[in-house]
Predict the 3D structure of the following.
Amino acid sequence: MTEFLIYTIIADFSARDFVFIISTVIQFARCSEMSRKILIIGGVALGPKAASRAKRLDPTAEITLIDQDSVISYGGCGIPYYVSGDVAEAEGLRSTSFHSLRDADYFAREKGFAVRTGTRALKIDRQKKELLVKDLNSGKDELLPYDKLVLATGSTPFVPPIPGADADGIFSVSDIHKAVAIKSRLSQGRVGRAVVLGGGAIGLEMAEAMADLWEVETTVVEMMDQILPRLIDKNISLMAQRHLEEKGVTVYTSERAASFLVEDGKVTGVKTDKRTIEADLVILSVGVRPNTQLARDAGLAIGSFGGIVVNKRMQTSDPNIYAGGDCVEMPDLVSGGSSFAPMGSLANRQGRVIGSNLAGKPETFDGMIGSFIIKLFDSCVSKTGLSLESAKAQGFDALAAFVVQADKAHFYPDSSMLYMQMVVEKGTQRVLGVQGLGPNSSSLLARVAAVAAILKYKPTVQDIANLEFPYAPPYAAAMDIINVLANTAQNILEGRNRVINQDEFIERFTNREENNTLFVDVRAPAQGEPLVEKYGPHWLNIPNNQLRERMDELPAGREIVLVCNAGSRAYDAMCILQSSNKNTVNLQGGIGGLKKAGIIL
Amino acid sequence: MTEFLIYTIIADFSARDFVFIISTVIQFARCSEMSRKILIIGGVALGPKAASRAKRLDPTAEITLIDQDSVISYGGCGIPYYVSGDVAEAEGLRSTSFHSLRDADYFAREKGFAVRTGTRALKIDRQKKELLVKDLNSGKDELLPYDKLVLATGSTPFVPPIPGADADGIFSVSDIHKAVAIKSRLSQGRVGRAVVLGGGAIGLEMAEAMADLWEVETTVVEMMDQILPRLIDKNISLMAQRHLEEKGVTVYTSERAASFLVEDGKVTGVKTDKRTIEADLVILSVGVRPNTQLARDAGLAIGSFGGIVVNKRMQTSDPNIYAGGDCVEMPDLVSGGSSFAPMGSLANRQGRVIGSNLAGKPETFDGMIGSFIIKLFDSCVSKTGLSLESAKAQGFDALAAFVVQADKAHFYPDSSMLYMQMVVEKGTQRVLGVQGLGPNSSSLLARVAAVAAILKYKPTVQDIANLEFPYAPPYAAAMDIINVLANTAQNILEGRNRVINQDEFIERFTNREENNTLFVDVRAPAQGEPLVEKYGPHWLNIPNNQLRERMDELPAGREIVLVCNAGSRAYDAMCILQSSNKNTVNLQGGIGGLKKAGIIL
């Protein structure tokens, strides 16, 4: 290779980045005539991607990828779908879209780099640029020289220190071998009852996999007071939980496993701080920890989340060593802090950036936004950016707007309801995130993806209010929910829409006698009257189209909770009552939102 | 109303905007104690939205909306779905999601403004701030005073000057009355054969409506050389056309209607420059023209696209007159020029901005991005930003990357292929637009919406390469097509992936003897061998996993077209051959892309 290019970085970059770029170009120029040795540790997602990209850009590079496992390059996120039977064979997760098995031979022949499986990395000598490895088959140690090293060491599921955790039948979902073992038990009919410890993404996907096709009586036990903690807010998680329960999955939150019941070395149940649950199989999914021992031993910088620290070019504190995927932490572009986000998609994108840099083409990965999506039976839950809880935890003075609206034009048949929440910062009106629950289709994804794309530009509610979401009746509303969320947030931020959330509604409803709270239902009599009959003096039905003339029926002073089916007519009512100086609040998401969370008045 | 707020505009604004804001705040302060008269002309989409918003913000405003029609506030974009039968009754398009009919009474009672239907605006007196109107029922003229006026006059379908265009049975889809008349003929079984003139969005939606439920033998005649001209590029439109044809719709492009055949005043057919097509019904859908006569007569500025000129606050050249929706033109935030985009979704969003400004709350609508989506039987076509053709027409030195990839993880069952194209500017690597064809679900929408959101920030391919599209196997790929499009575009822009498009492939394939072109098929023998048998010395099958050792079989000098099923393995092959100095090009989208466009080798 006798030519090299000086690439122009379009994005903003600091003086420090500039030094990196120039030094890399010079370095690339210097060594472009010689073959460069690139060593990659870890072959699941990021490793093969980085190796393939580097080799495409620089065919002269000598690249070796090592992995302690016998199997590499598989879609780890697909494990629940292999267990469920959606993916018939484990090989499906290891094959390309054109049905080639991604093994060592494939990478050698098609991608041009060497793979050594069954090879464990023991120690990095950064001075000599050598990696000590052990061949797990022969037991022999060997020193591998490198010019550039990549740490793609991934993460390991956390095993909670609970007595009996080593019993037969207790699995974490750490790799494809575990997946095969779990599915084998299911398909042999050995599992009648299962407990999943941890209501995060993998736990819930595994719960669905077992309960759906295999009809296993499945219980999820989550220590926090909601499922999908730290990912989505409690109001949305409650809707997801109701859906799981409708589908036959038992969910216990705010509950902790105390010990495992074991007979003859085999698990028979889980004892929690509240009950005992029988189980033939237990899935541990209480989080993962970045694999950083190798990096720590080599003296590389480790961050506050326990992940390896990398710069935008994915270089560790040693510029000859790159790292990415589950073993690193990285900037959170929304909060401005750091974050640990073990996601296959991030690993793939980072892998490509590392591959470019390995080949001397400077590229950057600026950080993460926090996008997430999960299928739960017939529902989908997704979010991007910050939840209200995490925004507050990170010091934002934030609030949430909650909107219920169809995913198509409301007159178009077969539409489904979306239950979405937008998190915004007070004062700046900046949008920090969006989340929601919708049908098992891409309609929620479409709204969340649009906000995911825009978040790094620090948009305000006005930006999302006018976001040009593609419109035709079969796919969206003319004023789509994503725009309505921003409009609603703006009305709340500017004090026109004084909302209460479901918790606040329940508190008011429960204490309605003491506080003499009046609930004014502005829906049509067919909807409102039954509740008037039930709750007498505390529930009044004045449809919006009578409100202007019946305003005087409303008491002054007494707090009035306006309710409708989704929250928008109640907002209209609040505007109508604006000049009357009534003390009104509006239940966000209305009765429809309550119902979806399982709250029936 | 004794209070008013000074709102802070977060977005960038010019000194001119600042003067507007200050002047509006002062003006608002001045007149906040008195009732203000707001007059709105036009009641389909923008008018009612602006009126409702203004009244919510300022309950003291006196608002009157006039419309010459008897029916207002309907989802005009829903007309094809009313005609198709998806929406059973025309009232469905005029009702809220909670089944209230949006008539004059509804707006008076629920939204607090007056509606006068059957009232035509004749003349604006800007000096006296009066509008001359005619009551179409009584025939009487009347002068209506205003403080602020809103022009929401919409657009009118263009009727081409073709002999016989006034015959019975020829309809444009201009309003709900026409829709009722068309559906009435269909439901009475009076239509066996229909011709749609114009292959734009409305024409194709109407073609589907008639062909699908009503089983009408339908022919679309389009003057340009593709359907959906100016919206999407020809390669994608060809795929859409094939799908329409599969569904039984006949499509003629590059064909012009010359005259209508008429018997006893009724249309019986269409004579084009190429043939005669029998028809009981003809739909004219060859575009719309903004209704600007009133504005022109009043001396308001009209732009180069024939639409009323407005500033970011949607004020015309007279600051007391606002305009929006189909009658205005506005900045194109991608091209930097102007555009005319008659879309119900834009009208709704602009209506809210106008409503805010009417109530003294400064808000802006910066311009349009150019988002579009359409359902075509089992397919969906969507785009945002510029097509390659329109980018070039507007002076951009642009190219397109075309990618075929599944909408879910490739191992996940029931995925559908997405055929997508990204338009990028050379040099800056700026992304100008994205478009594609996919299944009739929201999966294409999700990708297009993400790019629609980001376009106004002038993203580069690197921004989209790392766009954090939410990932789980049932909804996306770990390296999603939206990222792959950006990666592919970057590889093309930087000269690593030398692509040819389908046209260029066909030209090379047709002239393979003369030019001695060699096609190297890098797929497995099962796919490649049949074409070797068919095209002998011009078609060679060397699967990628044999390419490194069989490189010498490839001739030097002779042009080699690398082909695989989607274009990605052929790119790998090009990289493998990089050092061998072979003269290679890669068919974008591969054989799979060709097949979707109806091209079978």
User: Anything to note?
Assistant: Chain A touches chain B through 122 residues (CB under 8 Å). Chain A has four domains: 15-156+289-358, 170-283, 372-493, 499-596.
